[in-house]
Amino acid sequence: MKTTIGQVKHYVDQEVTIGAWLANKRSSGKIAFLQLRDGSGFIQGVVVKEEVGEEVFQKAKGLTQETSLYVTGIVREDARSPFGYELTVTNVEVIHAATDYPITPKEHGTEFLMDNRHLWIRSKRQHAVLRIRHEIIRATYQFFHENGFVKVDPPILTGSAPEGTTELFHTKYFDEDAYLSQSGQLYMEAAAMALGKVFSFGPTFRAEKSKTRRHLIEFWMIEPEMSFTDHEENLRVQEQYVSYLVQSVLQNCALELKTLGRDTSKLECIQAPFPRITYDDAITFLHEKGFDDIQWGDDFGAPHETAIAEHYDKPVFITHYPASIKSFYMKPDPNRPEVVLCADLIAPEGYGEIIGGSQRIDDYELLKKRLDEHQLSEDAYKWYLELRQYGSVPHSGFGLGLERTVAWLSGVEHVRETIPFPRLLNRLYP
């Protein structure tokens, strides 16, 4: 019976054949231990010389790291194994013998591993991170489907920018200027006027010359947009969604979290509702903590966000930022126009902002005024303004950064490990 490592639990005490790669091996006299992987998981294959004979045993002992092979054996339950099963090998068939595999079990530097990212993702740790990434994506589609959202795909090439053009990648679109999208939000607003509740999931690009552990040049965003939805309703959807993601990862990625050494007790308490503080209260809190450099009207940096997050054991919303430091489309608070109806969701444990969201301006004249104040072309945003001319409604939305969320739930330090092939300030290879 041909199967995968992930499915061997269905074949206990039966003989199966698995297509796999040799991750590592060790031998002790007349027994060889093969660490096998096939993409669905990792399992140990035990080769006993007396049971398989000299030819098969010598073949197994001679296998090199990352050699591809078909392994046949009996599935056994094994409480000592993190996976819970092992394979008593009866035969080995080499498909392709690998030689001089560059990533050995010894320690390697980060730059070397990044240069070999196409191979590094085969390792047990990277496998675990990318499986958690997959689970977050799977749970995202399920959450929005269950809550009546429609998936919409905004364009990647755009003629204008949702937040200005200072951090955009420019290209030529035949005879016109075009940019790689830094957000699908404006298009999602149009989609929400047609379909009610929508979400997108796609790549976004920021030409930001940042080298921090939280930044990538190319990253993936989940961007829901909701008609007839105010600021408070928007926050409730965000905390329900994030809670759903965390519980899905805890339930379906227990082995991966264990592989990464993640302290799951810090995730088990992540349930809605989340604490909320205003920007004003955050400024006061930071002053009390000795951050005298931050003044009202300044944006928060990583140290400020971390200090605030450390005060809570759940993600925390910081709401009502000054309009002067937020995007032109955010709706001012009717009771206090100098701040906007927005929130950033800050993850615990120093992982920073994972969501930015707001209620959008739904008044035509006010949006036109804000475009002028931000020196943005009215012609370029004509279609966006028209959304406020033909049946405008209160609407809100948010964007969740996938890689930062993966980093937080996985417990990894740098977002470069949370995407298969990271694009960093000085890295476009592989």
Label this structure with key terms.
430 residues, alpha+beta, OB fold (Dihydrolipoamide Acetyltransferase, E2P), BirA Bifunctional Protein, domain 2, 8-stranded mixed beta sheet, 5-stranded mixed beta barrel, elongated
Summarize the model shown.
Keywords: Aminoacyl-tRNA synthetase, ATP-binding, Cytoplasm, Ligase, Nucleotide-binding, Protein biosynthesis. This is Asparagine--tRNA ligase. The chain has 430 residues and is an alpha+beta fold.
Please give the structural blueprint:
Elements lengths: L1 E2 L11 E14 L2 E7 L4 E7 H4 L1 H8 L6 E10 L7 E12 L13 H6 L1 H4 L3 H23 L3 E2 L5 E2 L11 E4 L2 E5 L4 H11 L1 E9 L12 E10 L3 H22 L1 H6 L5 H4 L7 E3 H10 L13 H8 L6 E4 L12 E2 L2 E5 L1 E6 L4 E8 L4 H10 L8 H5 L8 E7 H9 L20
Parallel strand pairs: 1-2, 4-6, 7-11, 13-14
Antiparallel strand pairs: 2-3, 2-5, 3-4, 5-6, 8-10, 9-10, 11-12, 12-19, 14-17, 15-16, 17-18, 18-19
How does this structure look, described?
This protein has 430 residues and is of the alpha+beta class. It has two domains: 2-96, Beta Barrel (OB fold (Dihydrolipoamide Acetyltransferase, E2P)), CATH 2.40.50; 118-417, Bira Bifunctional Protein, Domain 2 (BirA Bifunctional Protein, domain 2, 2-Layer Sandwich), CATH 3.30.930.10. It has helices at 49-52, 54-61, 110-115, 117-120, 124-146, 185-195, 231-252, 254-259, 265-268, 279-288, 302-309, 364-373, 382-386, 402-410; strands spanning 2-3, 15-28, 31-37, 42-48, 68-77, 85-96, 150-151, 157-158, 170-173, 176-180, 197-205, 218-227, 276-278, 316-319, 332-333, 336-340, 342-347, 352-359, 395-401. The radius of gyration is 26 Å and the shape is elongated.
